[in-house]
Design a protein that fits this description.
It is a single chain. With about 60 residues, this protein is of the alpha+beta class. The chain has one domain. The protein has 1 helix and 2 strands; from the N terminus they run ββα. The N and C termini lie far apart (about 65 Å). It holds the Pfam family PID.
């Protein structure tokens, strides 16, 4: 049996980072990478349609 691995680093809301490692049996690493890429692309398109509103302090 051959296992492949996918690793990525993610940042949480308090700016700490963690490395996540996924073991992908049966040569599924490419499928996992493609799925993660599609999720990021979809979220970016949503962001472009509704960018966050800038908050300005009141003087």
């Amino acid at each position: 049996d051959t296992a492949e691995y996918v690793a990525y680093v993610a940042k949480d809301p308090v700016n700490q980072r963690a490395c996540h490692i996924l073991e992908c049996p049966d040569a599924m690493a490419q499928d996992v990478i493609s799925s993660i890429g599609q999720a990021f692309e979809l979220r970016f398109k949503q962001y472009l349609k509704n960018p966050p509103k800038l908050v300005t302090p009141h003087d």
